[in-house]
Design a protein that fits this description.
The complex is a heterodimer of chains A (114) and B (112). Helices cover 0% and strands 54% of the residues of chain A. Chain A is mostly beta strands and 114 residues long. The chains are: A mainly beta (114), B mainly beta (112).
Amino acid sequence: DAGVIQSPRHEVTEMGQEVTLRCKPISGHNSLFWYRQTMMRGLELLIYFNNNVPIDDSGMPEDRFSAKMPNASFSTLKIQPSEPRDSAVYFCATASGGFQETQYFGPGTRLLVL
Amino acid sequence: SQELEQSPQSLIVQEGKNLTINCTSSKTLYGLYWYKQKYGEGLIFLMMLQKGGEEKSHEKITAKLDEKKQQSSLHITASQPSHAGIYLCGAPPEDYGQNFVFGPGTRLSVLP
């Protein structure tokens, strides 16, 4: 298996633009997690899906952030409009169950908002 | 809410030396994950511990969860430059609605 696949790996955009991050989970994994990592705040969980349904989005910073999982093999995290403070590394992780199962992380998308 | 602390924050050792990283929880742990992260890369799963007193090993890395399930240690024997990176501990929530939490990380450098 190729592992968790994220795209793009790097994204540089200007403030106000829409940003879409993509994740393809490991086949057979039914839980998907979006994380954000910054120097200031460390690693934070943004949202968690189970069987394509958002279970907990309490970590999503504000309405500018939205996440979808239209099917078991694809998820997106969208920021609209983007702001400089959104600059971070965004990780997608998947697991075969919920939190009690091992999470496997993708390589991350490094986002820079100018 | 549950919080994880790690010590030390950073560590520099000479190749071949042993080292220990600690992770302490403010509440009883219902599982403890150890991850390694290289700069600019994703997290790599190392080990998961669930039972009090449990100990697991993989190559030269051993992780233990204490009997009270509030502290875990990660021990590296005969460190190598390939062990360098940031080690993070993470804890799953007890119930739905609570968040998976991570420690702040320990940055390890191994000098050749």
